[in-house]
Amino acid sequence: MNKLRIFFVLLAVVGGCLVAKAQEIKEMENNQYCVTSGDMTLVVDASRGGKILSFKYKDQEVLNQGRFPNSFGSTFWTSPQAQWNWPPVPEYDTKPFAAELKDGKLVLTGEKSERFGYRIRKVIHVCQHDGAMVITYSIINESGETRQVAPWEISRVPNGGTLFFEADAVEPANNMKGLTFTFKDGIATYEMDEDKENRKINADGKGWLAFNNGNVLFIKKFQDLQEGQAAPAEAEIQVYANPGKTFVEIEEQGAYTTLEPGASVDWTVRWYAVPAGDAEGNLAKVKEILKGSDNHQHGSH
């Protein structure tokens, strides 16, 4: 198989020295693609819903590697869930996506949903300014009708570690039992635990969340929703804990948007992974990364 590859080098000034950070998007076997940015690697499977199967810092895996459906990797759905209930819509979650490497980006395009008339597109690239993995999701309305919808990213991590984000409260969601969060200085923290029941919460965050698995700090940056922007019964941040010592879903959603026929909505999430430290140090790392990202948000990344 001919390997399609895009390779370039980002030069950054660190301590007065130039440091080269390799960045690469490479086609692998079985319709999978590997995106590299410095010490971060991300693997996407175009044949299985365009899912992100793996996200690593050096050799440390962040995402859950479960064997059962809906237990591994990172995926994308439309919100609110009440529109489709369960299981996830196959054209978004399990059916093949067409993949191409174009202008330094991996472009994944799904099939049109037979039931809803939406088509999902995912564009993944590396930010040349701060090395972030940048994922832009698009929902394209090909239904011929005016529809309301919100974007929704679901990332599954092993149940073991600490999740935190900026919020003063959380509330139980989807008629499930809630999760035990603590709140201090405006930060909501969940020390992952296990239970026999499904548990889920909604929260109004501030455009970021972070997960510490003990070795790696996984940070997501996304749109900070204002009051009334979330889809009905949904929220900017959601956390779902599967029963037992299995996995936890760390989720975020974009604004509930009206789409005319042929219109689309784009929504971007930025992923980072750095070595984890103590609670105070981790929060400082998050703030530093967010500040650096904000400095480049309005340019082409």
Key attributes of the depicted protein:
301 residues, mainly beta, 7% helix, seven-stranded antiparallel beta sheet, 2 helices, ten-stranded antiparallel beta sheet, Beta-galactosidase, Chain A, domain 5
Structure overview:
With 301 residues, the protein is mainly beta. The protein has a single domain, classed as Beta-galactosidase, Chain A, domain 5. Helices cover 7% and strands 49% of the residues. Strand 18 and strand 19 form a beta hairpin. The protein is globular and about 50 Å long. It starts with a strand and ends in a 7-residue tail after the last helix. About 5% of the residues have low confidence.
Helix-strand layout with pairing:
Elements: E1 5-14, E2 17-27, E3 32-37, E4 40-45, E5 51-57, E6 60-61, E7 74-79, H1 90-93, E8 98-102, E9 105-109, E10 118-126, E11 133-141, E12 147-158, E13 162-166, E14 171-172, E15 182-184, E16 187-191, E17 199-203, E18 208-212, E19 216-221, E20 237-241, E21 247-253, E22 257-259, E23 264-275, H2 279-294
Antiparallel strand pairs: 1-2, 2-3, 3-4, 4-5, 5-6, 7-12, 8-9, 9-10, 10-11, 11-23, 12-21, 12-22, 13-16, 13-18, 14-17, 15-16, 17-20, 18-19, 19-23, 20-21
